[in-house]
Protein backbone atom coordinates (compact mmCIF):
# COMPACT_ATOMS: atom_id res chain seq x y z
CA UNK A 1 0.00 0.00 0.00
CA UNK A 2 1.28 3.44 -0.91
CA UNK A 3 1.20 5.99 1.90
CA UNK A 4 1.68 9.68 1.23
CA UNK A 5 3.24 12.05 3.72
CA UNK A 6 3.43 15.76 3.01
CA UNK A 7 6.68 17.17 4.40
CA UNK A 8 6.35 20.83 5.46
CA UNK A 9 9.77 21.91 6.81
CA UNK A 10 8.78 25.54 7.32
CA UNK A 11 11.15 28.12 8.78
CA UNK A 12 14.16 28.51 11.08
CA UNK A 13 15.31 25.16 12.40
CA UNK A 14 12.28 23.48 10.86
CA UNK A 15 14.13 22.19 7.77
CA UNK A 16 17.00 20.83 9.92
CA UNK A 17 14.91 18.85 12.39
CA UNK A 18 12.47 17.71 9.72
CA UNK A 19 15.33 16.31 7.63
CA UNK A 20 16.34 14.02 10.51
CA UNK A 21 12.74 13.01 11.19
CA UNK A 22 12.31 12.17 7.51
CA UNK A 23 15.36 9.91 7.59
CA UNK A 24 13.79 7.94 10.46
CA UNK A 25 10.42 7.81 8.69
CA UNK A 26 12.00 6.48 5.51
CA UNK A 27 14.08 3.94 7.41
CA UNK A 28 11.15 2.53 9.36
CA UNK A 29 8.50 2.55 6.63
CA UNK A 30 9.32 -1.03 5.55
CA UNK A 31 8.45 -2.23 9.07
CA UNK A 32 4.93 -0.91 8.58
CA UNK A 33 4.65 -2.63 5.20
CA UNK A 34 4.51 0.79 3.61
CA UNK A 35 5.48 2.02 0.24
CA UNK A 36 6.17 5.57 1.26
CA UNK A 37 5.81 8.62 -0.95
CA UNK A 38 6.90 11.98 0.43
CA UNK A 39 6.59 15.43 -1.06
CA UNK A 40 8.03 18.69 0.26
CA UNK A 41 5.37 21.37 0.61
CA UNK A 42 6.02 25.05 1.52
CA UNK A 43 4.36 26.70 4.51
CA UNK A 44 5.02 29.70 6.74
CA UNK A 45 7.52 32.44 6.02
CA UNK A 46 9.30 30.41 3.38
CA UNK A 47 5.98 29.96 1.55
CA UNK A 48 5.32 33.69 1.77
CA UNK A 49 8.74 34.37 0.23
CA UNK A 50 7.93 31.98 -2.61
CA UNK A 51 4.28 32.71 -3.27
CA UNK A 52 3.16 35.70 -1.20
CA UNK A 53 1.07 33.57 1.16
CA UNK A 54 1.93 31.64 4.36
CA UNK A 55 -0.24 28.80 3.05
CA UNK A 56 -0.64 28.85 -0.73
CA UNK A 57 -3.72 27.07 -2.04
CA UNK A 58 -1.50 24.48 -3.72
CA UNK A 59 0.16 23.67 -0.39
CA UNK A 60 -3.24 23.21 1.24
CA UNK A 61 -4.43 20.88 -1.51
CA UNK A 62 -1.27 18.78 -1.31
CA UNK A 63 -1.69 18.52 2.45
CA UNK A 64 -5.31 17.44 1.98
CA UNK A 65 -4.26 14.72 -0.47
CA UNK A 66 -1.72 13.21 1.94
CA UNK A 67 -2.34 10.53 4.56
CA UNK A 68 -0.42 12.67 7.06
CA UNK A 69 1.54 15.90 7.31
CA UNK A 70 4.96 16.16 8.98
CA UNK A 71 5.62 19.78 9.95
CA UNK A 72 8.82 21.46 11.15
CA UNK A 73 8.09 24.95 12.51
CA UNK A 74 6.97 28.33 11.22
CA UNK A 75 7.77 31.96 11.96
CA UNK A 76 10.67 34.26 12.67
CA UNK A 77 11.52 37.96 13.03
CA UNK A 78 12.05 38.27 9.29
CA UNK A 79 8.26 38.28 8.84
CA UNK A 80 7.19 40.14 11.99
CA UNK A 81 6.49 43.36 10.10
CA UNK A 82 4.03 41.74 7.71
CA UNK A 83 0.32 42.38 7.96
CA UNK A 84 -1.14 40.06 10.58
CA UNK A 85 -3.04 38.05 7.95
CA UNK A 86 0.19 37.28 6.08
CA UNK A 87 2.37 36.18 8.98
CA UNK A 88 3.66 32.58 9.03
CA UNK A 89 1.55 31.61 12.04
CA UNK A 90 -1.61 32.43 10.10
CA UNK A 91 -0.67 29.76 7.59
CA UNK A 92 -0.43 27.18 10.36
CA UNK A 93 -3.74 28.22 11.92
CA UNK A 94 -5.43 28.02 8.54
CA UNK A 95 -3.97 24.60 7.86
CA UNK A 96 -5.29 23.27 11.18
CA UNK A 97 -8.71 24.74 10.47
CA UNK A 98 -8.97 23.63 6.83
CA UNK A 99 -7.92 20.06 7.69
CA UNK A 100 -10.30 19.94 10.65
CA UNK A 101 -7.51 19.10 13.08
CA UNK A 102 -9.53 19.66 16.24
CA UNK A 103 -7.46 17.59 18.70
CA UNK A 104 -3.84 18.27 19.59
CA UNK A 105 -2.10 15.51 21.56
CA UNK A 106 1.05 16.57 23.43
CA UNK A 107 2.72 13.89 25.55
CA UNK A 108 5.16 15.03 28.22
CA UNK A 109 7.32 12.26 29.63
CA UNK A 110 10.81 11.71 30.91
CA UNK A 111 13.05 9.77 28.53
CA UNK A 112 15.67 7.70 30.30
CA UNK A 113 18.04 9.66 32.52
CA UNK A 114 16.96 12.97 31.03
CA UNK A 115 15.38 13.53 34.42
CA UNK A 116 18.57 15.39 35.32
CA UNK A 117 17.84 18.01 32.64
CA UNK A 118 14.57 19.03 34.26
CA UNK A 119 14.62 22.12 36.45
CA UNK A 120 12.36 20.26 38.91
CA UNK A 121 13.56 17.82 41.56
CA UNK A 122 14.12 14.22 40.51
CA UNK A 123 11.50 12.89 42.92
CA UNK A 124 8.93 15.28 41.45
CA UNK A 125 9.37 14.36 37.79
CA UNK A 126 10.89 10.87 37.64
CA UNK A 127 8.40 8.53 36.00
CA UNK A 128 6.17 11.39 34.85
CA UNK A 129 4.01 10.63 31.81
CA UNK A 130 1.29 13.19 31.04
CA UNK A 131 -0.83 13.50 27.89
CA UNK A 132 -2.30 16.97 27.26
CA UNK A 133 -5.18 16.98 24.77
CA UNK A 134 -5.84 20.51 23.50
CA UNK A 135 -8.85 21.54 21.45
CA UNK A 136 -7.30 23.13 18.38
CA UNK A 137 -9.84 24.70 16.03
CA UNK A 138 -12.17 26.65 18.33
CA UNK A 139 -12.09 28.89 21.36
CA UNK A 140 -10.62 32.36 21.59
CA UNK A 141 -8.10 31.80 18.77
CA UNK A 142 -10.91 31.49 16.21
CA UNK A 143 -13.89 33.18 17.86
CA UNK A 144 -15.63 36.15 16.25
CA UNK A 145 -15.89 39.09 16.59
CA UNK A 146 -12.25 40.09 17.00
CA UNK A 147 -10.80 43.54 16.47
CA UNK A 148 -8.76 46.50 17.62
CA UNK A 149 -10.84 49.68 17.47
CA UNK A 150 -10.62 53.29 18.61
CA UNK A 151 -8.16 56.12 18.29
CA UNK A 152 -4.66 56.55 19.67
CA UNK A 153 -4.55 56.18 23.42
CA UNK A 154 -8.15 54.92 23.52
CA UNK A 155 -7.92 51.68 21.55
CA UNK A 156 -9.85 48.59 22.58
CA UNK A 157 -8.80 45.03 21.74
CA UNK A 158 -11.53 42.40 21.43
CA UNK A 159 -11.35 38.63 21.18
CA UNK A 160 -14.20 36.18 21.67
CA UNK A 161 -14.00 32.86 23.49
CA UNK A 162 -16.76 30.68 22.09
CA UNK A 163 -17.42 26.92 22.02
CA UNK A 164 -20.46 25.06 20.77
CA UNK A 165 -21.69 21.91 22.47
CA UNK A 166 -20.69 19.67 19.51
CA UNK A 167 -17.15 21.15 19.52
CA UNK A 168 -16.80 20.42 23.22
CA UNK A 169 -18.26 16.94 22.93
CA UNK A 170 -15.92 15.74 20.20
CA UNK A 171 -12.74 16.83 22.03
CA UNK A 172 -13.99 15.48 25.37
CA UNK A 173 -14.76 12.14 23.71
CA UNK A 174 -11.23 12.13 22.32
CA UNK A 175 -10.02 12.68 25.88
CA UNK A 176 -12.01 9.71 27.18
CA UNK A 177 -10.80 7.49 24.33
CA UNK A 178 -7.14 8.35 24.91
CA UNK A 179 -7.48 8.01 28.70
CA UNK A 180 -8.99 4.56 28.15
CA UNK A 181 -5.80 3.47 26.40
CA UNK A 182 -3.67 4.81 29.26
CA UNK A 183 -4.45 4.60 32.98
CA UNK A 184 -8.16 5.45 32.76
CA UNK A 185 -7.90 8.86 34.44
CA UNK A 186 -9.08 12.04 32.69
CA UNK A 187 -8.80 15.55 34.11
CA UNK A 188 -10.88 18.22 32.34
CA UNK A 189 -9.41 21.70 32.82
CA UNK A 190 -11.57 24.82 32.61
CA UNK A 191 -12.38 28.09 34.37
CA UNK A 192 -15.99 27.35 35.27
CA UNK A 193 -15.95 29.66 38.30
CA UNK A 194 -15.64 32.68 35.98
CA UNK A 195 -16.46 31.79 32.35
CA UNK A 196 -19.86 30.71 31.02
CA UNK A 197 -18.12 28.86 28.18
CA UNK A 198 -16.38 26.74 30.85
CA UNK A 199 -19.68 26.06 32.63
CA UNK A 200 -20.94 24.59 29.36
CA UNK A 201 -17.65 22.70 28.90
CA UNK A 202 -18.00 21.07 32.32
CA UNK A 203 -21.68 20.20 31.75
CA UNK A 204 -20.87 18.49 28.46
CA UNK A 205 -17.95 16.57 30.01
CA UNK A 206 -20.22 15.24 32.74
CA UNK A 207 -22.86 14.20 30.19
CA UNK A 208 -20.32 12.39 27.99
CA UNK A 209 -18.87 10.60 31.03
CA UNK A 210 -21.97 8.38 31.12
CA UNK A 211 -20.70 6.67 27.94
CA UNK A 212 -17.35 5.83 29.59
CA UNK A 213 -18.16 4.23 32.95
CA UNK A 214 -14.65 2.81 33.30
CA UNK A 215 -12.94 6.20 33.13
CA UNK A 216 -12.42 8.40 36.18
CA UNK A 217 -13.27 12.04 35.38
CA UNK A 218 -12.11 14.96 37.50
CA UNK A 219 -12.29 18.71 36.94
CA UNK A 220 -9.71 21.39 37.74
CA UNK A 221 -9.55 25.16 37.25
CA UNK A 222 -6.78 26.16 34.86
CA UNK A 223 -4.87 28.30 37.36
CA UNK A 224 -4.75 25.41 39.83
CA UNK A 225 -3.82 22.99 37.03
CA UNK A 226 -0.84 25.17 36.10
CA UNK A 227 0.36 25.13 39.70
CA UNK A 228 -0.25 21.39 40.13
CA UNK A 229 1.65 20.53 36.94
CA UNK A 230 4.76 22.04 38.52
CA UNK A 231 4.05 20.98 42.11
CA UNK A 232 3.03 17.36 41.51
CA UNK A 233 2.87 16.41 37.81
CA UNK A 234 2.58 12.67 38.44
CA UNK A 235 -0.96 13.14 39.74
CA UNK A 236 -2.02 13.66 36.11
CA UNK A 237 -2.39 11.06 33.38
CA UNK A 238 -4.60 12.57 30.64
CA UNK A 239 -5.69 16.22 30.53
CA UNK A 240 -8.31 17.60 28.14
CA UNK A 241 -8.89 21.32 27.78
CA UNK A 242 -9.65 24.21 25.43
CA UNK A 243 -7.42 25.91 22.91
CA UNK A 244 -6.00 28.75 25.01
CA UNK A 245 -5.62 26.77 28.23
CA UNK A 246 -4.10 23.84 26.36
CA UNK A 247 -1.57 26.07 24.64
CA UNK A 248 -0.31 27.34 28.00
CA UNK A 249 -0.48 24.08 29.95
CA UNK A 250 1.23 21.96 27.30
CA UNK A 251 4.20 24.34 27.19
CA UNK A 252 4.37 24.29 31.00
CA UNK A 253 4.32 20.49 30.88
CA UNK A 254 7.17 20.64 28.38
CA UNK A 255 9.56 21.83 31.05
CA UNK A 256 8.89 18.72 33.11
CA UNK A 257 10.86 16.84 30.46
CA UNK A 258 13.89 19.12 30.66
CA UNK A 259 13.58 20.73 27.23
CA UNK A 260 10.82 21.80 24.90
CA UNK A 261 13.05 20.25 22.23
CA UNK A 262 11.94 16.82 23.46
CA UNK A 263 8.18 17.19 22.93
CA UNK A 264 6.38 15.77 19.88
CA UNK A 265 2.73 16.36 19.07
CA UNK A 266 -0.09 15.00 16.95
CA UNK A 267 -2.98 17.06 15.59
CA UNK A 268 -5.88 14.80 14.68
CA UNK A 269 -9.19 15.23 12.88
CA UNK A 270 -11.81 12.98 11.39
CA UNK A 271 -9.90 12.44 8.14
CA UNK A 272 -6.51 14.15 8.43
CA UNK A 273 -3.53 14.26 10.79
CA UNK A 274 -0.46 16.42 11.26
CA UNK A 275 2.64 15.74 13.36
CA UNK A 276 5.08 18.37 14.60
CA UNK A 277 7.53 19.15 17.39
CA UNK A 278 6.14 21.51 20.00
CA UNK A 279 9.16 23.84 19.85
CA UNK A 280 9.23 26.90 17.63
CA UNK A 281 11.45 27.88 14.72
CA UNK A 282 14.37 29.10 16.93
CA UNK A 283 15.79 31.42 14.25
CA UNK A 284 18.73 32.35 16.50
CA UNK A 285 20.27 28.89 15.96
CA UNK A 286 18.93 28.11 12.49
CA UNK A 287 21.54 26.75 10.10
CA UNK A 288 24.10 26.13 12.85
CA UNK A 289 23.51 22.38 13.36
CA UNK A 290 22.61 23.06 17.02
CA UNK A 291 18.91 22.14 16.96
CA UNK A 292 17.55 19.15 18.85
CA UNK A 293 15.75 16.90 16.32
CA UNK A 294 14.38 14.44 18.88
CA UNK A 295 10.94 16.05 19.17
CA UNK A 296 10.57 15.85 15.38
CA UNK A 297 11.77 12.24 15.40
CA UNK A 298 9.37 11.36 18.23
CA UNK A 299 6.60 13.01 16.18
CA UNK A 300 7.30 10.38 13.51
CA UNK A 301 6.64 7.77 16.20
CA UNK A 302 3.27 9.35 16.88
CA UNK A 303 2.59 9.29 13.11
CA UNK A 304 3.12 5.54 13.08
CA UNK A 305 0.92 5.14 16.16
CA UNK A 306 -2.08 7.26 15.20
CA UNK A 307 -2.17 7.37 11.39
CA UNK A 308 -0.71 3.98 10.47
CA UNK A 309 -1.89 2.12 13.61
CA UNK A 310 1.56 0.73 14.36
CA UNK A 311 2.18 1.66 18.02
CA UNK A 312 5.05 -0.83 18.26
CA UNK A 313 7.06 1.31 15.84
CA UNK A 314 6.43 4.35 18.03
CA UNK A 315 7.72 2.35 20.99
CA UNK A 316 10.84 1.35 19.06
CA UNK A 317 11.58 4.97 18.21
CA UNK A 318 11.13 5.94 21.86
CA UNK A 319 13.47 3.12 22.91
CA UNK A 320 16.08 4.29 20.41
CA UNK A 321 15.88 7.83 21.80
CA UNK A 322 16.36 6.54 25.36
CA UNK A 323 19.36 4.52 24.14
CA UNK A 324 20.97 7.52 22.45
CA UNK A 325 20.48 9.83 25.43
CA UNK A 326 22.71 7.62 27.59
CA UNK A 327 25.63 8.62 25.37
CA UNK A 328 24.92 11.80 23.40
CA UNK A 329 23.11 15.10 23.84
CA UNK A 330 22.42 18.26 21.88
CA UNK A 331 23.32 21.52 23.57
CA UNK A 332 19.85 22.15 25.05
CA UNK A 333 19.97 18.94 27.11
CA UNK A 334 23.72 18.56 27.56
CA UNK A 335 24.94 16.89 30.75
CA UNK A 336 28.34 15.90 32.20
CA UNK A 337 29.70 12.65 30.82
CA UNK A 338 27.74 12.85 27.56
CA UNK A 339 29.08 13.51 24.06
CA UNK A 340 27.94 16.79 22.54
CA UNK A 341 26.46 16.30 19.08
CA UNK A 342 24.71 18.46 16.53
CA UNK A 343 21.38 17.99 14.82
CA UNK A 344 22.67 15.77 12.01
CA UNK A 345 24.77 13.62 14.32
CA UNK A 346 21.82 13.12 16.64
CA UNK A 347 19.85 11.79 13.68
CA UNK A 348 22.75 9.45 12.89
CA UNK A 349 22.76 8.19 16.49
CA UNK A 350 19.03 7.43 16.44
CA UNK A 351 19.35 5.49 13.19
CA UNK A 352 22.26 3.52 14.65
CA UNK A 353 20.24 2.73 17.79
CA UNK A 354 17.33 1.51 15.66
CA UNK A 355 19.72 -0.74 13.75
CA UNK A 356 20.92 -2.30 17.03
CA UNK A 357 17.42 -3.31 18.12
CA UNK A 358 16.26 -6.94 17.81
CA UNK A 359 14.63 -7.54 14.45
CA UNK A 360 16.29 -4.32 13.42
CA UNK A 361 15.18 -2.49 10.35
CA UNK A 362 17.71 -2.07 7.56
CA UNK A 363 19.26 1.34 8.07
CA UNK A 364 21.62 3.00 5.63
CA UNK A 365 24.99 4.01 7.02
CA UNK A 366 25.05 7.60 8.36
CA UNK A 367 26.31 10.20 5.93
What would you say this structure looks like, in words?
The protein has 367 residues and is α/β, with parallel strands linked by helices. The protein folds into 2 domains: 1-107 and 262-367, Isopropylmalate Dehydrogenase, CATH 3.40.718; 119-257, 3-Layer(aba) Sandwich (Isopropylmalate Dehydrogenase). 38% of the residues lie in helices and 19% in strands. It is built from 12 helices and 14 strands. The two termini are 29 Å apart.
List the helices and strands and how they pair.
Elements: E1 2-10, H1 14-28, E2 35-40, H2 45-51, H3 57-65, E3 68-73, H4 88-98, E4 103-109, H5 122-125, E5 129-135, E6 147-149, E7 156-158, H6 165-180, E8 185-190, H7 196-209, E9 216-221, H8 222-231, E10 238-241, H9 243-254, E11 264-268, E12 273-277, H10 294-306, H11 311-325, E13 328-329, E14 339-340, H12 343-356
Parallel strand pairs: 1-2, 1-3, 3-12, 5-10, 8-9, 8-10, 13-14
Antiparallel strand pairs: 4-5, 4-11, 6-7, 11-12
Cα(first) to Cα(last) distance is 29 Å
Shape: globular
Q: Helix amount, in percent?
A: 25-40%
The ordered H/E elements are EHEHHEHEHEEEHEHEHEHEEHHEEH
Main sheet specs: 10 strands, mixed
CATH architecture of the largest domain: 3-Layer(aba) Sandwich
The residue ranges in which pLDDT falls below 50 over 5 or more consecutive positions are 362-367
Concise overview:
By secondary structure, the chain is α/β, with parallel strands linked by helices. The chain is built from twelve helices and 14 strands. It has two domains: 1-107 and 262-367, Isopropylmalate Dehydrogenase (3-Layer(aba) Sandwich), CATH 3.40.718; 119-257, Isopropylmalate Dehydrogenase (3-Layer(aba) Sandwich), CATH 3.40.718.
